[in-house]
Amino acid sequence: MVMALAWVLTSVGVLVATVLVIWRWTRRGLNLPPGPRRWPVVGNLLQLSSLPHKDLAAYSAAYGPLVYLRLGGVDAITTDDPEVIREILLRQDDAFASRPRTLAAVHLAYGCGDVALAPLGPKWKRMRRICMEHLLTTRRLDAFAGHRAAEARHLVAEVRRRAAAGEAVNLREVLAAFSMNNVTRMLLGKQLFGGESVGAEEEALEFMEITHEMFRLLGMIYLGDYLPAWRWVDPFGCERKMREVERRIDDFHSRIIDQHKKKAREMSLQGAAPSCGEMDFVDVLLSLPGEDGKDHLDDVEIKALIQDMIAAATDTSSVTNEWAMAEVIRNPRVLRKVQEELDAVVGRGRPVAETDLAGLSYLRCVVRETFRMHPAGPFLIPHESTRPTKLLNYDVPAGTRVFINTYALGRNPRLWEDVDEFLPERHLPTAADGGRVEISHGPDFKILPFSAGKRKCPGAPLGVVFVLMALATLFQCFDWFPPEGLLPEDIDTTEVYGMTMPKAKPLLAVARARVFFDVNQ
Ligand code: HEM
């Protein structure tokens, strides 16, 4: 027994020593960027807390614009610097536009067979082209404008109902339902929460719960991705959890595809065909030819795309909306200015419409300031380098994981004054900007809500509409106050880390009607 144990310990020791020697040898002569001291085997992994974006922000402050980390067996860099980010996303996007195959991505994105988590390659290119040319086209998105207006009315009705009952409104709940309904109407042809969906509330809640769990797992820095030995042990059952969520989500997607196929069969038996305006995204995907001469896309490809759209479009917009509401209610001065603008541009006699949104410059500054302080995700989705390259004259090996810290970018004191103050005015356009407030990144790369380059968000125009429409509607129709007993500045702004970065506690606020038009007019 003692002999066997000694043998195992010696073998492990020899293995670790061999790995270290090989690793050091392959890095001979490399001029890696500066970074914190690393431990053998684990590297910097144990220096990361439950808020890694803050840890990496502190490293950027200490070591400069480009920081090297070793995460177990994986090279990683992080940056909060606009010039380095521009170099990574634009000038060298051929080298940095891939994605790591993390275990969460393999389990939760159909083996990385989607768009958002797929490594760079012909498969990603084809799936992204399907999104751009068949789903997120201006024509198709315009066809859903009526549904979006209906969801804005539903949002007002829901807040009125809760306010009339004397409750403080749980803004997380109503904003999550707004985003989810908008996405599922477009994607699946049905509203999940409220209205038409009476009776399906349980299914909706279950689906929201799995989606949140999926986000948590996707955002996690899972040790098994960096230390293969950890995977064998999996002491917290993370991979088991990933498999369970994978199965539950797949069941949901299978049901959706079956329902759509059944509907298509029934229509074809009646000799009918849906018009372009009536087709939801699943109908569109079912109508497209597959690869290599196949008549249709594979079910798994359709599922991966549905999954991406739901994951990419719902939490991003509802988390942003909750932060914007929290910051505006914390700053009554800003609320007054937003409402003065709405009164001047839209008035109080009719609901705000999508065509008004371009003219709401101050509200657009509010959204930009929200993205500066609370980007939807603390990092862009991690990128990965496909070949050895150089940044700021440092060597970056192939396979390096890239953490672009958008949280630290927005709070970088070298770029912004009063970083912790919510000051939308700082984004007011000068005459040189042409007077329009752009919400996506500008030429200075100081805010990056939708990224840039090959991997930039293909849903940005729609995301902007979801955010502006919800906020304009809520600020036009209601005055907002903190719950009884709290002052505006008491509203908590602690965040939790994940693929998105929500407020730690759901936002509760008191709503008082300020317009009285019939929302259904
Ligand atoms: C406020 C709303 C939104 C925000 C803040 C947002 C932000 C982002 C960000 C930061 C990325 C990562 C880019 C990178 O890694 O470099 C991304 C990727 C992506 N987004 Fe969005 N997004 C939003 C809404 C949407 C919507 C509405 C859709 C589609 C319906 C969408 C679809 C995608 C997809 C498919 C990707 C992956 C692109 C790729 O890897 O090629 N997003 N988004």
Automatic annotation (TrEMBL):
Q: Which cofactor does it need?
A: heme
InterPro entries from the xrefs?
Cyt_P450, Cyt_P450_CS, Cyt_P450_E_grp-I, Cyt_P450_sf
Question: Carries keyword Oxidoreductase?
Answer: yes
The record's listing under SUPFAM superfamilies reads: Cytochrome P450 (SSF48264)
One Pfam entry for this protein is p450
Q: Which UniProt keywords apply?
A: Heme, Iron, Membrane, Metal-binding, Monooxygenase, Oxidoreductase, Transmembrane, Transmembrane helix
Residues noted as binding heme in the record, renumbered to the chain: C457
Q: Transmembrane ranges?
A: 6-23
**By what name is this protein known?**
Uncharacterized protein
Q: Which organism is it from?
A: Spirodela intermedia
